[in-house]
C-alpha cells in the first residue's frame, strides 16, 4: 500500500468515526461538536474574531512569540553547543547549566519570570528562549562530537588551521544534527507557548482556547486546537524544507 493511500484511509476512518459519533447522537455536542457546528464557529471567528480581536491577531501574536523565542534560543544555543563540542573548557563551563535546564519543566520557572519581567511579552519570550536553548545546545554539541575523526586528521595532515577545520569540516558535518535539534526545539517551544498563553496571556491561540473553554464553547476550543496543529505542522515542514536545501548531502555520505 502506498503511503498516500494509507494516509487517506486513516483520515477517512477518523472523519467517519467523527460523523458517526456526532450525527448519530452518541456524544453530546458539548464534548465533540459536529462538523456543521465547527464550520459555523470557524466562520464566526473569521468574521467577528474573538474578544475584540480578529483571529489573525491571535495567530499573529502566537507566531511572533514563537519566532522570536525560538529564533534567539536556537541561535544562541547552537553557537554555545558548537563551542562546547569543540572546546572542552567551554563545555566544562556551560555543561552544568545546560544539563540542569534541559530536563527542567519550562512552566516550573514561568512564575519566576513573571515576577522578574512582568506578565507581558518579555516573560513569555524569555520562557520560549530558555525552552529552545538547551535542546539546540545539546544537538550542536553532539553533532560536533560525532564528526568523523578521519576527516579531521586528513585536514590536519594537509596543514589546515584549527579555524579552517571548524568552519569547513566540523560545522558542515554537524548541520544535520543541528537541524534535528531545531525540529525538536520548535516542538517544545510550541507546546510551551500554548501553556504560557493559558497561564499568563490575554491574547494568542492558547489563551483563546482556554478562555473559550471557560464558557463551554467547545466549538471554539476545537477550532483553536486545529489551528494550533496546522501551525505546528507548517513550522516543522518549513524547518525540514530548509534542512533539505542546506544539508543536501545528508544520507549520501
Compile the SSE list and pairings.
Elements: H1 3-23, H2 35-48, H3 55-86, H4 88-101, H5 110-117, H6 121-145, H7 149-157, H8 162-200, H9 205-214, H10 218-246
Helix pairs in contact: 2-10, 3-4, 3-6, 3-8, 5-6, 6-8, 7-8, 8-9, 8-10, 9-10
Short description:
The chain is an all-alpha fold and 253 residues long.
Radius of gyration: 23 Å
Give the N-to-C terminal Cα separation.
30 Å
CATH topology-level name: MetI-like fold
Question: Which structural class should the secondary elements be placed in?
Answer: mainly alpha
Tell me the fraction of residues in β-strands, as a range. under 5%
Give the averaged pLDDT, no decimals.
88
Structure description:
This protein is mainly alpha-helical and 253 residues long. It has one domain: MetI-like (MetI-like fold, Orthogonal Bundle), CATH 1.10.3720. It contains 10 helices and no strands. It has helices at residues 3-23, 35-48, 55-86, 88-101, 110-117, 121-145, 149-157, 162-200, 205-214, 218-246. The longest helix has 39 residues, at 162-200. The chain is globular.
Task: Summarize this structure as a short list of keywords or feature phrases.
253 residues; mainly alpha; MetI-like fold
Amino acid at each position: 500500500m502506498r503511503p498516500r493511500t494509507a494516509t487517506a484511509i486513516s483520515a477517512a476512518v477518523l472523519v467517519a468515526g467523527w460523523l458517526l459519533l456526532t450525527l448519530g447522537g452518541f456524544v453530546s455536542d458539548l464534548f465533540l461538536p459536529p462538523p456543521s457546528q465547527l464550520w459555523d464557529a470557524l466562520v464566526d471567528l473569521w468574521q467577528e474574531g474573538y474578544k475584540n480581536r480578529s483571529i489573525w491577531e491571535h495567530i499573529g501574536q502566537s507566531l511572533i512569540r514563537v519566532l522570536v523565542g525560538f529564533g534567539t534560543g536556537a541561535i544562541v544555543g547552537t553557537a554555545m553547543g558548537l563551542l562546547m563540542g569543540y572546546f572542552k573548557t567551554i563545555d566544562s563551563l556551560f555543561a552544568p547549566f545546560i544539563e540542569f535546564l534541559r530536563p527542567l519543566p519550562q512552566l516550573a520557572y514561568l512564575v519566576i519570570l513573571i515576577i522578574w519581567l512582568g506578565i507581558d511579552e518579555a516573560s513569555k519570550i524569555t520562557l520560549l528562549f530558555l525552552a529552545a536553548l538547551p535542546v539546540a545546545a545539546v544537538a550542536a554539541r553532539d553533532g560536533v562530537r560525532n564528526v568523523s575523526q578521519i576527516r579531521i586528521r586528513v585536514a590536519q595532515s594537509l596543514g589546515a588551521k584549527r579555524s579552517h577545520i571548524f568552519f569547513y569540516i566540523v560545522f558542515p558535518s554537524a548541520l544535520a544534527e543541528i537541524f534535528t535539534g531545531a525540529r525538536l526545539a520548535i516542538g517544545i517551544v510550541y507546546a510551551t507557548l500554548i501553556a504560557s498563553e493559558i497561564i499568563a496571556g490575554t491574547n494568542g491561540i492558547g489563551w483563546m482556547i482556554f478562555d473559550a473553554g471557560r464558557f463551554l464553547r467547545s466549538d471554539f476550543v476545537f477550532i483553536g486546537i486545529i489551528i494550533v496543529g496546522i501551525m505546528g505542522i507548517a513550522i516543522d515542514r518549513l524547518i525540514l524544507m530548509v534542512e533539505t536545501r542546506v544539508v543536501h548531502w545528508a544520507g549520501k555520505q
